[in-house]
Structures are given as structure tokens and as C-alpha cells.
Amino acid sequence: xxxxxxxxxxxxxxxxxxxxxxxxxxxxxxxxxxxxxxxxxxxxxxxxxxxxxxxxxxxxxxxxxxxxxxxxxxxxxxxxxxxxxxxxxxxxxxxxxxxxxxxxxxxxxxxxxxxxxxxxxxxxxxxxxxxxxx
Length: 134
Hints:
By secondary structure, this protein is of the alpha+beta class. The chain has a domain at 11-90. The protein contains four helices and four strands, in the order ββββαααα. The chain has helices spanning 57-90, 96-103, 106-116, 126-129, and strands at 11-15, 18-27, 30-42, 49-52. A four-stranded antiparallel β-sheet has the order 1-2-3-4.
């Protein structure tokens, strides 16, 4: 996420005011997902919506259910990141040892091609070209 520094969450799971936000993080082994549980509430004085990480007794079961769902979704994101990595690796240019023959001179390229070419079939003798007589 190097060029996506201030982006929002990958996904937000909700059950009423309770939420679980899934975030993409970068680690030494590539991207991974972290989860932030929270609750939305409205500030009585300002009327603005805010977030909190404290929960009432009734919210705890919602948090539990959302965290189980977040665990499943994080697994899907892991697979997505793994597939992206495989796709990027498939798009990488050839390794130097594979590029090297193209950098050789024409004579070296010819010699390499001849070394891998099949020998031609022997030509048919003039007697084999004739139709047999009955």
C-alpha cells in the first residue's frame, strides 16, 4: 500500500452501531490484514458521529460475531494478495540467463539454433520415387 497511504479500510463489516474494519498493512513478507473493532455513536453535545472502542454488554456478542466474520474475510484477502503476487511474478521480465542468447552475435545464435535442430530426413533415392511395376 505504498502509494495508498491514507486510504480507508479494505472492508467494513457492521451490525448496527458495532463495526469491524479490515485494513491492509505492509509487512516484511508482503501485505496482510489487521482488524479494528469499534462502535459508532453520536456525541450529544456536538451532534457529530464518533467512533469508540468500548462496548456495552449487549455489544460484546455483536463484536464476537463480527470478529468471526472478519477472520473469514481476512482469509479471502490473504488469498487475493497471494494471487496478486503470483500475477506480478508472472509478468516479470525474463531472467538474465534467458535474455543472454538474444544479446549474442548472429553466429552464436545460429550455432545455438543448429545445436537444437533436428537432422533432416534422408532424401529418397531415385529408385524409391518410382512406382513399383506389376
